[in-house]
Amino acid sequence: MTPSDTKTWTSETVAGDLERAIHEHRLPPGTKLGEDELGEAYGISRTLVRAALQALSYRRLVELKRNRGAFVAQPTVAEAREVFEARALLEPRTARSAAERMTPEALATLRDHIAAEHTALHAGETGHALFLSGEFHILIAQIADQKTIEDFVSELISRSSLIIALYWRRRAALCESQAHHALIDAFEARDGALAEELMKSHLLDLMASLDLRNLVARPQSLREALGR
Amino acid sequence: MTPSDTKTWTSETVAGDLERAIHEHRLPPGTKLGEDELGEAYGISRTLVRAALQALSYRRLVELKRNRGAFVAQPTVAEAREVFEARALLEPRTARSAAERMTPEALATLRDHIAAEHTALHAGETGHALFLSGEFHILIAQIADQKTIEDFVSELISRSSLIIALYWRRRAALCESQAHHALIDAFEARDGALAEELMKSHLLDLMASLDLRNLVARPQSLREALGR
DNA sequence: GTTCACGATCTTGTATACAATATTGAGCCC
DNA sequence: GGGCTCAATATTGTATACAAGATCGTGAAC
């Protein structure tokens, strides 16, 4: 993270940074994102902050409340269900397509990704591991080579991180390592049907780990969460 | 359309108006959307224009080119395929869900919609008919009562209007009237499986009507297209 | 006639100023 | 102590000013 006096932040990079912070649960659901505070933190004017926040609101990561400000979104139980239903519709398909298009390079990338996730977990960096876990799914969608669906998946993954922050009840790491490894095997075998089935059950498993009756949120100061 | 001196335009309403104009092919793909020109047309400052354009860029209806301006998007052939593939993945499901949830009121709304479309066609308002035709699909997604997927469908429908502007080769009205009527029958019978199948073939039919080898674009002045 | 360079002007990117609205704290009353 | 009111302050919404970059027209050179 670059210090604020380096002045390299655009609205896009700020949005990306905030999204990362949200994804890694450094900015929990419900956190207020003040324009002035963010402007000071990043060393930019409110104009760019507002653009970044608008961008995040289109990804449903941030809720803009007129005259009241921007807040990290807090998906309802209904929204949680919807997001995972949408994932259940799209991701098995991307898994199948990815398997059919798999290359040694792509496979290596996926493996590196899992390794990085394990490393982060062992180092106690659960937020980073969470981010990488979600990125694994996005990588699959990228390999599937369908940008439109990839974009939807990307948004759903980001929103999932909020849902997980609010509703996750399983002690274990987010995605069962085994499930990702099984997917890797299906990809190596270029077995589209298997990849599709594995993704379906993986997502069912994820959804089963959500307690869609609880709601928790913990705001904290912005500077602290962004580490500046 | 309210005259510009009434000062009721927000960035959201401007974005909605522009989206409507794009959808009805009054703003063709490739049209430059100048900030000052739009600000004058709507009687607002560039601040709100920029926000509206950013909103439209997130829906992929407008392409923002840094230092060069905003243009109505021109989907490539690849994008066209992707959009219809994504629709093929999502809309049969929404059709099924809609059928299972159908009420007499919702059915009446759909029927009214088709009637309005016919009226527009007979009046020679092809742009309006086109808009209503797309709205029919969005209505189905709304009845399906899954907001997340509905939002994706809405975006895909809007992008479809651009694709149709560029690649449509059939002389007939956009969606075959018969296909929409058959869907209505399936909805009336609350036959989810039939609705799903009908939607699948309807979308295949639509995609078959696109000539994904041609590219046409016709810019024109903004004031003219917006009728102000 | 064609091409290139340069300057003027236009347009977009961003910061800042001003307007509008919400929040908070102090004081007063019951 | 609790509730209400009001003013000060903070924050958001929007316009405007200034900076940066792109475009276009003109004149000179070939």
Report on this structure:
The structure is a homodimer of 228-residue chains. Chain A folds into two domains: 4-74 and 215-226, Arc Repressor Mutant, subunit A (Orthogonal Bundle); 77-208, Four Helix Bundle (Hemerythrin (Met), subunit A) (Up-down Bundle), CATH 1.20.120.530. Chain A has ten helices and three strands, in the order αβααββααααααα. Chain A is globular. Chain A has a three-stranded antiparallel sheet. Chain A has helices spanning 11-23, 35-42, 46-58, 77-101, 104-122, 126-143, 147-167, 177-188, 192-208, 222-226, and strands spanning 32-33, 62-65, 69-72. Chain A has 228 residues and is mostly helical. The interface between A and B is medium-sized, with 18 and 18 residues.
List its salient traits.
homodimer; 228 residues; mainly alpha; Arc Repressor Mutant, subunit A; Four Helix Bundle (Hemerythrin (Met), subunit A); 2 domains; 10 helices; 66% helix; disordered N terminus; DNA-binding
